[in-house]
Amino acid sequence: MPEVAFEVDVDAPPDDQPGANPFNRWHPDIPAVVEADPGDTMRLEALDWTGGQIRDNDDANEVRDVDLSQVHYLAGPVEVNGAEPGDLLKVEFLDMGPLNDRAEFGFTGTFSQQNGGGFLTDHFPNAAKSIWDLDGYTVSSRHVPDVRYEGKIHPGLAGCAPSQELLEEWNERERELMERHAEDPDSIQNHPTGEAEPPVANPPTTEGALMGEMDPDEAEEAAEEAARTVPPREHGGNHDIKDLSIGSTVYFPVYVDGAKFALGDFHASQGDGEITFCGAIEMAAYVDVKFDLVEDGMEKLGVDHPIFEPGHRGPTFEDYVTFCGYSVTEDGEQRYLDSHTAYRRASLQAIDYLKQFGYTGQQALHILGTVPVEGRQSGVVDVPNACSTLALPKGAFEFDVSPETLGSDKDRGDVVVTDDPLG
Amino acid sequence: MPEVAFEVDVDAPPDDQPGANPFNRWHPDIPAVVEADPGDTMRLEALDWTGGQIRDNDDANEVRDVDLSQVHYLAGPVEVNGAEPGDLLKVEFLDMGPLNDRAEFGFTGTFSQQNGGGFLTDHFPNAAKSIWDLDGYTVSSRHVPDVRYEGKIHPGLAGCAPSQELLEEWNERERELMERHAEDPDSIQNHPTGEAEPPVANPPTTEGALMGEMDPDEAEEAAEEAARTVPPREHGGNHDIKDLSIGSTVYFPVYVDGAKFALGDFHASQGDGEITFCGAIEMAAYVDVKFDLVEDGMEKLGVDHPIFEPGHRGPTFEDYVTFCGYSVTEDGEQRYLDSHTAYRRASLQAIDYLKQFGYTGQQALHILGTVPVEGRQSGVVDVPNACSTLALPKGAFEFDVSPETLGSDKDRGDVVVTDDPLG
Amino acid sequence: MPEVAFEVDVDAPPDDQPGANPFNRWHPDIPAVVEADPGDTMRLEALDWTGGQIRDNDDANEVRDVDLSQVHYLAGPVEVNGAEPGDLLKVEFLDMGPLNDRAEFGFTGTFSQQNGGGFLTDHFPNAAKSIWDLDGYTVSSRHVPDVRYEGKIHPGLAGCAPSQELLEEWNERERELMERHAEDPDSIQNHPTGEAEPPVANPPTTEGALMGEMDPDEAEEAAEEAARTVPPREHGGNHDIKDLSIGSTVYFPVYVDGAKFALGDFHASQGDGEITFCGAIEMAAYVDVKFDLVEDGMEKLGVDHPIFEPGHRGPTFEDYVTFCGYSVTEDGEQRYLDSHTAYRRASLQAIDYLKQFGYTGQQALHILGTVPVEGRQSGVVDVPNACSTLALPKGAFEFDVSPETLGSDKDRGDVVVTDDPLG
Amino acid sequence: MPEVAFEVDVDAPPDDQPGANPFNRWHPDIPAVVEADPGDTMRLEALDWTGGQIRDNDDANEVRDVDLSQVHYLAGPVEVNGAEPGDLLKVEFLDMGPLNDRAEFGFTGTFSQQNGGGFLTDHFPNAAKSIWDLDGYTVSSRHVPDVRYEGKIHPGLAGCAPSQELLEEWNERERELMERHAEDPDSIQNHPTGEAEPPVANPPTTEGALMGEMDPDEAEEAAEEAARTVPPREHGGNHDIKDLSIGSTVYFPVYVDGAKFALGDFHASQGDGEITFCGAIEMAAYVDVKFDLVEDGMEKLGVDHPIFEPGHRGPTFEDYVTFCGYSVTEDGEQRYLDSHTAYRRASLQAIDYLKQFGYTGQQALHILGTVPVEGRQSGVVDVPNACSTLALPKGAFEFDVSPETLGSDKDRGDVVVTDDPLG
């Protein structure tokens, strides 16, 4: 086992850890707390993305009331000696797994429309929760019976620190989006409307900011401009790519000397899109990483976003039921080549299908969020309809979920749903 | 070999075929020309989607000047005895292949921004063409050297006839989109702007309409309301799903008595999204289909779009280089959870990457349109950025396209590009 | 479609074909009837291995009485210009398929112990037959219900002509084996004993010899020493490798000027080992091949047997039930690291297992011979027991064949079995 | 993490562990040291199969001089409450991995012909050793450069205790084999000949016997008849099946009340056949197992050997170079349907091939023993030649090992080989 270079204690408060504390903002000046040479291998541990707010119980109010200002709790930054802007930082994910003897479960949540929302929040406005058992890599849930499969573990979030210039670019463009929305909500496609609607972006805030080992005076100032960790951006970040599992190699753009790499937000398994938002099987975990550098890699390879080579450790599935969606909203409004809407419709088709097999809609939503479904951009040019497909692996179910069976009327219980949506 | 129930002659004009003529509009009243019982297996042949307008030569003007009013040339309609609205028509694709002794090549085109446009038309405004050899299922192109792979053949277009009611719904919602665009072009996300911009939708037109065996008098009237075949819709249609290859089983919603199933627009291979628009390897082909019915299947399975179970005949790839994109436009504009833009950016990353290996941008575009790349809806909830990924299979190349190689300066020629964009 | 360079007529006698006749012996002097340059692509057609002796009916006596002196009916020889001894002939299998409009079925047979025998002939001494429908690549049989799968088509037999020297080496070593057996039957491991036992090898014979376009006078003399086509040898030959399907590339050693390549004995699908002997789904078929040469390839690559790179066209299976066998005979005799016996035992385990699902033993045998089971040399060093495994793909069955189901008592009929074993 | 029910200390002597000691014989009376109910999940740890005799250094004499009387060191027995003879014990392998912080390497050895021997001992009579680094599941070796891959971890050995009756059957048949060999060495096929030849079987011996928690007086007596753990037998045992990796479910026959299940001999990776004998990447490891029972499963499923369903966690490979072998010995002797010899020849072809890429023969041997090569029983009926194939995954190499490259003259060093074969 490689040396544990960043260690967490799931029983301690997330902001009062025995060693270096996790941090939760992107800023070039957050000091590195781990040092690595090219060629080094080390273990990094990370808390779950809520820092322990969701526990193994049957209380969905924990999801409804989750404090989203502090997320995520990242491991790092790691300074890689010799890394310079323009390089690519090569990161091999040699192994990952649960912090077994310290945190033995995962959770999936539907956020309340009043707090977080999500892809299908207008269909599922109330918070809900399911708890998942981790048997090695095999996952199952008392809240979603008859589903049991080998998960595809991965970090939802990983990337290098932005430069000051890049950070300002992020802030500027996201502020501009919020302004557009404030001026004319209808100008923002794909956003649910209504009083409790989730924000279109999360601007910098000092509230809940954890700036790592930064000097407290500087930290306050930096937090005022530091980027939130919710969205993925061109450095990677919270991209929630389910395929970054064991054996993958990622090349991350470097923007500051030493790269200042960090990661976190592990998922025992996730479907493409992470459509439940808090939607993968969220967990605390470790990862063994090996670092290397590609000097001037961004120019040499012509990229300014991460690229990666997926591993070969599966799980592999062969048999799928696949659903189609096009860019027409549920209300019948025709959108122009809108892949987001197309994937929504494919997801809703899959949910309605699963309801014919005895699941509730919320259960079906949690299935799509956790099972490694393949969400594909199948067609993007046939005006006006984009076509997205969602492929559901049959092997994740302990019964035959094929169309030939014409469904099943077995009662399969439910996830835990909040009855009082306002908390 | 099953009986050829719909035969084409690639050397005859597309609208003057020896047997029943192909048709190119969706309308409930177009008469069936083939009859099938549940359980029947038959062979259907189809012209390429342009009806032979693009030939095996080095002239890209054929693509620039293509007549888009007549596309596509569909085989059918097939009346399946006993099919009723609400049923699902089960269609097994037992085999497909080129009309070998009659049409032995495929083509890929970049449409002119003045005629068709496409996903990246503002980056590649000029028409271009590449010709592909079909060696069995193995494809290669003199215009894109050092790429050679086993393709994933499939019909780009398949579905049952709409009911009159569904047809009107289509027409209404697409007209509404065109009106919105006419009033305020900026309200339509993802649409390129400029004088020569492609239309946001294609309304019914009698021009170029082929109404099959319909009585000429009725045909003219029907054509005025018949839906164009360009977009996919909830019946399937032109969904361009690369995974519908040999061995797949599709369940199509039935809207009219007898189902009136049709298909066409075959591709020797395609990448997810078909980003070149005329973008797969377009070809004339045959398919052997087996029909069956699931009575009341739409209600029993809770679906009103096609669902399918993919086959197992590959080709399978294991090694990929994967590119990421987020919903920020190339100009730096922040979009809200816009998967279309995210996939554009991932595609552009891949194109820039391939340029480091000696390809031109147009060649790279044709590679992404034809190689079975996996385009994934990786993240759709992390506001404001959707994340899409594009996974390029290394096995499609005859050299090592891995990041480790740091590119190659080999000259790899070019596709044929129009020098005069206006024709 | 490439030019048909070797054509067959399944309705004509196998030795009186319209063009060049198939041949059935290996000899350096059989003249080439097709010529190819390196880089050429062509179509070759071949009769089924019995030349049409087994027909689509319910008469198993055709298998019992099959004339084995004439098999197999090979397409070729093909002279590849420039090929010299020591080269490797590179052959790409671009496409294959049934001669659809001329022969639309396949067959599987259990040979009689009196005529041919086979791997499990002491368990299944009577001849039996099953007829298989070919729906594209999907196969099924009225004699083996509830089994339906996409097959893995391949030529059972392919290779270049031996040199005179190699031919003599073959004859010498096989004669020596027969002599050993004649002197002391017990010295020959793995051979069934009894009066009707099949021969341990098939020596040259002029009976039934088809020497292609050889001068009749020379042919008679050559047939006296020409090698039979039953066994595979270091040139390839009848190696019955199920993985040589569409998209594969094989490098065959060249022993004579021009290589004189030939192939035949196509199978719509086969399990590893072809344990029924006449055991794959036997069929007439075509193959599109592309030839190339690797000069001095045998020395450069250090090989003197064929090597190959399998294609990627599947079918792929993910879910298996796997059976184990060790080198102890059914009678309890301990053998020393005997993989043949180990695979026998694994096969018998699988047969007994399938009998719990309603199949007869003969049906189970035909399933193992035709479904692409994986037969593995799992352990070969743990004295005294070799371990072989047989992995049965669940996806080949239309019901759940998992252990969890504990079998099924459904009556599934039977293959056609000869009642009078002597004919 | 499940409770550790059997714990080992790799720094303590293998027969003086802190808790229950490993055992190394099969006997029904060895007492269970772990108890489980059906449905229970637990972690079992095991020493490497030599109990620490081979260390991470460059001394191959450790392999030459290894004491084979004590192997293997098994974890267990586990008594599963309610298990009765005739049941099947269902064992799910939920997770496995190295004892990371306690043993961080693996080893591969070629046994000396004087001590252990092996599949190709007449070609490689001298002992040799390679040491492998375990980076998570990714393995590499300073002794075999340019090979690096994700391994397929598995226990080489697992099974339930035999009944007294079954034990006697084993002893009887293996004794009979030794007697046959003593009387007439030539009657034993596949055995190397010469003064230093390894034994054909290993009879019971009290020397080195570890009888677990058995009373010392009874243990001595039991050891005189207890079966050695070297060979696999119908209970499973040392079957060395590389496919029993994470996610697999095995059904083991039960012969005694409580089943008395045990396992050990973990491999970080192995090729089919484990042709180096000490040939996989040998390691100490843990496994998380879940137990369940199928009452009367042997009769219900018609099996009396283990059956299993492989997991889906890969690694998966798509591109192979495959080698063929037939049942003719290297000396040109024709064998009758001898799959062992066929696999030998395929292995030797692969070794000669790898030598063209700069490896020594011993390195090539270690590659075939450790990389998950697929060893197939391709043909077993075409008298007199069986055909076996060995498929080498290209993805295990850090360079292109395709035939197209025509080899490489790079110097790749060597494994450590003993210079004095006698010690």
TrEMBL record, chains A, B, C, D:
It is an enzyme of class 3 (hydrolase). It comes from Halopiger xanaduensis (strain DSM 18323 / JCM 14033 / SH-6). This is Formamidase. Residues 1-30, 176-241, 403-423 are annotated as: Disordered. Its EC number is 3.5.1.49. Keywords: Hydrolase. Residues 225-241 have a biased composition (Basic and acidic residues). Residues 1-14, 214-224 have a biased composition (Acidic residues). One of its GO terms (molecular function) is formamidase activity. InterPro entries: FmdA_AmdA, FormamaseFmdA. The keyword Cell division does not apply.
